[in-house]
Amino acid sequence: MLGVVVAYSALAGDRLVALVTSIGCAGLLLTALALAGRWATLLPWGFVGVGAGYALFLSLRGGTVDARAPILAATFFVAAELSFWSIEGRSWRSEREVLVRRVALLFSAGLATAIVGGLLLLVASGRRGGIGYEAAGVAGAVLTLALITWLGRTEDR
Amino acid sequence: MTRSASPKLGAYAGLAALGLLAALALRLPELVLFAAPFALVAGVAALQVRAPRIDVEVDLAHERTLEGDLLDISIRFDPSDAAERVDVLLELPPGLEVEEGTNPATLRLSKGDERVLQLGLRCVRWGAYRVGRVHLRAHDPFGVFKHETAIDRRQALKVYPTQEAVRSLLRPAETQVFSGNHVARQKAEGIEFADIRQFVAGDRIKHVNWRATARRGELWVNEHHAERNADVVIFLDVFAEARRGGRSTLDPALRAAASLAARYLRQRDRVGFVSFGGTINWLLPATGARQLYRIVDAMLDTQIILSHAWRDLVVIPRRTLPPQALVLALTPLLDDRAVTALLDLRARGFDLVVIEISPIAFVSRPRGEIQEVADRLWRLRRDAVRGRFERAGVPVAVWNDESSLAAALEEVGASRRRARTSRV
Predict the structure, then answer these.
(1) Cα(B265)–Cα(B252) distance, integer angstroms
(2) Model pLDDT, residue B4
């Protein structure tokens, strides 16, 4: 599924295609390596590579926003979820109900990403940016990271 | 419950932050779409994280079972909170294997909805176990956080060894004073005819041998052998064992011990038990079904504990080995301390029989010239040990995979009968 993002970046772009493809393929290679070796710490770097290839494609593209971005974002998210699922290292079979609900949740999340992403893109394309929005964005990103790190620590209850 | 974050949390948080920053830096709103789902999943999971309260009960179908039997076990979950995915692992000791059901299993638990997980356990090996420690690992819907705990609902499970087929038991050389099933040498009230003698005052009319009386012209009566019980001590050598995979020489030894104890107790003999090795365990001879359970329970605690300390018969309480008892030794003949103790027993006048649990089948085939020489030397040394017993008048029967316990007992019985005849 990540290959779809890389392939789209390579095929839809017209400038520095080789560089975009190389970065995307490097990401794919890292992901494959992480999946084969079940290295959870390496896995995000593969996604970063694929994302970087797409970001480079977008920055070289210029002009209007990419209308296919919501679909690609959903594909990217589902691919990430499936990758983490595959390295969970569970050797036993889950109950049928659990499996069905998990698959349903995954694809619902993908679908929601595509739909909400499309709407957001539509709203965002009509607005103009500013220093306030950028500062709020940076602060939001840093705060999210801090909150997640704090909540994610191991604790005994 | 112990809470921990999966590697996904860090990865998603990193991807979200990187994506958002890149979107701002490069002024690409599309990248926000890439970062948003990761931020949303990590953020929602982090805000909603809580340990689910799940009560667990474990029920065993039986507290006692036989080696090789299938035991039903049910794990009952009573969740106070819903849990999307719960990994359940019932901790099992070696000797118990899951044959029906899945262990570990992943379940979904709804709030207040009781669930039961059924498992069928095959009791592969005898032993005293404690079963019921359940490990739970609850995941949130996206698997970002997990809560782990171990719930201890252990219950005692006794798996008794299966019994070996035994056709006839060894007759003890001496009997005791209580009534039983062995024909004693002494003449007294009984069924087995012994001799005839002249009538004396006090003899009962029913004992008059009318044919002898008619022939001799005076009253003669029949004499009978008394039916008495005997003392039997099962002596288990637990100094060393030969082991291959899950099998060991201790397994057939225990099966034989349990079978012999059951059979002797059934014919009203007093049976005692001595496990002689790194640790020493004993039971005074007694009769009845309760003694059988005591012996089998004592056997279940038997294990090979490596010890280099010298041990002899002094450490065994004197009452455990009553005089004139038949001592049935079950030994792989692997440790000199056991051999010396058994020869010492014989020297003290005990009626001793050795059943050798052959370790040959547990030894891998020698490879190379040196190993072959070592193997031959080892076998010769075992023959020499057997020779020592034979010279001391102790019959030794070898019990291996190719023969049955009944055959080994027959061999010993025949040898004892021959010895008795030659003594006469």
Answers:
(1) 20
(2) 83
Pure H helices in B132-280 = 210-216, 250-266
Q: Which of B203, B71, B52 is nearest to B136 (CA)?
A: B52
Which helix (DSSP H) or strand (DSSP E) does residue A123 occupy? helix A96-125
As for the ipTM of the complex, it is: 0.80
Average pLDDT over residues A126-131: 58
What average pLDDT does this structure show over B344-373? 88
Using CA atoms, how far apart are residues B27 and A104, in angstroms rounded to an integer? 34
pLDDT tens column, B183-240 = 777 777 878 888 899 999 988 888 899 999 999 999 999 998 888 888 899 999 888 8
Give the closest of B13, B24, B34 to A51, CB-based. Answer: B34
Q: Could you identify the residue written with the tokens 């996206």?
A: B142
CA-closest candidate to residue A45, choices A75, A23, A66, A15: A23
Residue B423 dihedral angles phi and psi, to the nearest 5°: -65, -40
Most confident of the following: A22-36, A66-80, B209-223, B408-422: B209-223
Query: In A, residues 95-154, which contact B (CB 8 Å cutoff)?
Result: 95, 97-98, 101-102, 105, 109, 113, 116-117, 120-121, 124-125, 129, 134, 137-138, 140-142, 144-145, 147-149, 151-154
Q: What whole-number distance in Å separates Cα of residue B39 and Cα of residue B34? A: 10
Average pLDDT for A125-135: 60
Query: Looking at residue A85, what is its pLDDT?
Result: 87
Residue B140 · residue B3 · CB < 8 Å: no
Q: What is the pTM of this model?
A: 0.70
Distance from CA of A41 to the nearest CA of B (A): 7
B1, B33, B43: residue with CB nearest A148: B43
Hey, is B367 helix, strand or coil? coil
The model's pLDDT over B309-355, given as tens digits with 9 standing for 90+, comes to 677 777 777 778 888 888 999 999 998 888 998 998 888 888 899 99
Two structure tokens written together for B20:
């958002």
**Spatial distance between the Cα atoms of A79 and A86, rounded to a whole number of angstroms:** 10
Instruction: Please list every residue in chain B whose beta carbon sits closer than 8 Å to the beta carbon of residue A142.
Output: 17
CA-CA-CA-CA torsion for B237, B238, B244, B246, nearest 10 degrees? 120
Which member of A54, A59, A144 has the closest CB to residue B13?
A: A144
Task: Give the model's pLDDT for residue B74.
Answer: 92
Longest Cα–Cα distance of chain B, Å, equals 137
CB contact under 8 A, B143 and A85: yes
Cis upstream peptide for B79 (omega within 30°): no
In this structure, are residues B260 and B328 in contact, taking their beta carbons and an 8 Å threshold? yes
Q: How far apart are CA B15 and CA A47, in angstroms?
A: 8
A152 with B29: Cβ contact below 8 A: no
* Least-confidence region, from A108-117, A125-134, B41-50, B379-388: A125-134
- A15–chain B Cβ distance below 8 A for any pair: no
Measured between CA atoms, the residue of chain B closest to residue A132 is B24
Whether chain B has a CB inside 8 Å of the CB on A73: the answer is yes
pLDDT digits (tens, 9 = 90+) for B94-125: 888 988 888 888 888 888 888 898 999 998 88
* B383 C-beta neighbours (distance < 10 Å), count: 9
Cβ-nearest to A48 among B18, B24, B85? B18
